[in-house]
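Margin note: ligand = zinc ion.
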Amino acid sequence: MEPVDAERARQLSLFRPLGYQHNSCGYCKSEDGSASYYASSQVVRPEHYEELVNRGWRRSGTLYYKQHLKRSCCPHYTMRLEASAYQPRRDQRKAINRWNKFILGPEYIRKAAYLCPRSREEKKFRKCNFDVQAAVHESEYSHVKRPIDPSTKRAIEPAHRFEVNIEGDSASQAKYELFRKYQTIVHKDDPSRLRIKDFERFLCSGIKRSPTKLTKSNESEKKLGSWHQCYRLDGKLIAVAVLDLLPSGVSSVYIFYDPEFEQWELGKLSAMREIAFAHENGYPYYYMGYYIHSCQKMRYKGNFRPQYILDPESHNWDPLDGELSQKLDTRPYVSLSRDRFSANTDDSSSSVGLEKDVDEARLSLFDLNMPGNLSLEEVEALDLGNWHLLYHGAFVQMSDLVNWEKMKFNDPQSIKGIIGELASVLGPEVVRNSAVVLFD
Ligand SMILES: [Zn+2]
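Resulting structure:
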């Protein structure tokens, strides 16, 4: 690995290993149902996060985690769709048409039909086709046609002024208040637990953003990192979609909105807007986060088609519809690549998870059979002695640690064991471009 000068340091992502942990499941409420590997970071670069997402990781604020899919009651599968191939369903088209009608209002629509009528071709086209991009922008104030009404000598105005802007993921009083309102009313959260600090950590501490500040000259540059897409109605903030923009994809992190607008299905509308945004700005994929097949509430994600699921072992993408979906109906853990391999070689040994009564806390991650991780042999081949370690603000190498050579990767109590586990979950590409934070 290259030595770290100031320029190289700026290109690195940092990870603090937190280790493997069991936790209760938020979906089926089982007490010990889920297990994940965790790391935390204040500095993750978008291209590295993309690599992690494509290995099954996700972030919540500054906490990064990857679930042990075989060990979990409600396995979290990474899903994505090709933005250009998206085919909106009838209910999705209806939701956006309804919203546009509400924003424009009957009076505007009537006058516009008269003052700037659509051509016959346009009408015919609209009848047979649904253009997602056009529909998403139709009621945005900057796109609304405002011809002069001869009877009043003034431009006609829509019923509401609707604006959507993308901003850095920093906190503001208006965003925080909207977040509190949304969490307490929609998710019934205890308001005393929703301090601005928590809001900042959860939704305003994303991955590295570029450009760091938006100006007139860089406005059209491809954006990367964590952003807030802010929806304003008549000047008032009504929704914020938190987005991670990656080199090849838009990842939806969260959305919170004014519950007074619940009837407009803002979750559905924002997903359509983000797909259009991805398509228009050169991000091929749209990531809707994890998909949990057993969770009824999650099924709506599968309605954005065609959807693909990350194979937990081969890291290929398989269509959700068809074989995969049918298999998920019958068992929680599915890896199509594993199924095919087992069918060809009659190997079923490694598809079996651990016995429930094994005390996993005392085992090394290398013994836990967590899908998609590097094996002990693969980690040993990585030359981790040269991996960077950020130690009291300076970069050193792992091999500088006392007794590095003597320690073993499969000893979970040793520093080398902790480092090896982190490398095993991050994968080779991110290891090459990162540093570990341990003692600070
Ligand atoms: Zn569960």
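Residues 6-74+324-437 form one domain.
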